[in-house]
Amino acid sequence: MGRQQEKTPFQKWESKVADDHHIRLPSFMMKHPNYISLSPRAKELYQYMKDWAYYKKSEFIYSASLAESIPILRANGKKEYIKLMSRPAYYKARDELISAGFLYWKNKPTAQNGKHKHEKGDKCKREKSIFVFVDTWYSGKPYSPPKGKDDDL
Questions:
Q1: Residue-level pLDDT at 23
Q2: Per-residue pLDDT tens digits for 98-131
Q3: How far apart are CA 116 and CA 110, in angstroms?
Q4: Average pLDDT value for residue range 36-52
Q5: CB 72 within 8 A of CB 81
Q6: Whole-number pLDDT of residue 33
Q7: What is the pLDDT of residue 151?
Q8: Number of folded domains in the chain?
Q9: Of residues 1 and 70, which shows the higher confidence score?
Q10: Domain hosting residue 73, numbered range
């Protein structure tokens, strides 16, 4: 049986929240030319996506509405929502992360599957976007799953 490690508390200058968490942005990635060449918006979106997917593995659901409404904690302890970026800015940053190999859009709408689910007697239901963090950013190329292996991420 493994030993339980105590969490190292954040320094005073890092966070005032006792049970806060951090996102991992390895030094190797931060100094890599493919990360450095991302736009500031794409870097910011990547960090917020990492924060959103904190307890999940590499696969997570994210949407433009999440980028439009980011919760922040004010000095008085009250939670407030601010706009991180507009929808067009989100779409541009998301597409940049995908084309640079940082993200894969697992259920991206195509001409074959459409954008909406149609159920008998129901209105159109929009599918939630499922993203996966991928490692093809080393090469700067978008991820493309082997045929029929989309679920192996």
A1: 83
A2: 999 999 999 887 544 445 555 555 555 667 889 9
A3: 11
A4: 93
A5: yes
A6: 94
A7: 53
A8: 1
A9: 70
A10: 31-106+126-139
Residue 132 lies in a domain: yes
The amino acid at 31: K
First-last CA distance in the chain: 29
103-105: strand order across its sheet: 59-61, 130-133, 103-105
Q: Residue 27's CB: how many other CB atoms inside 10 A?
A: 7
What are the structure tokens assigned to 18, written together?
Answer: 């006792």
The residue among 126, 137, 135, 130 whose CA lies nearest residue 151 is 130
Token pair, residue 98, equals 């995908």
Write out the two tokens for 100.
């640079």
Question: CB under 8 Å to 84, separation ≥6 — which residues?
Answer: 44, 45, 48, 67, 68, 69, 70
Contact 70, 48 (CB under 8 A): yes
Within-domain flag for 113: no
Q: What is the pTM of this model?
A: 0.77
| 6 within some domain | no
Nearest to 95 by CA among 70, 58, 131, 71: 131
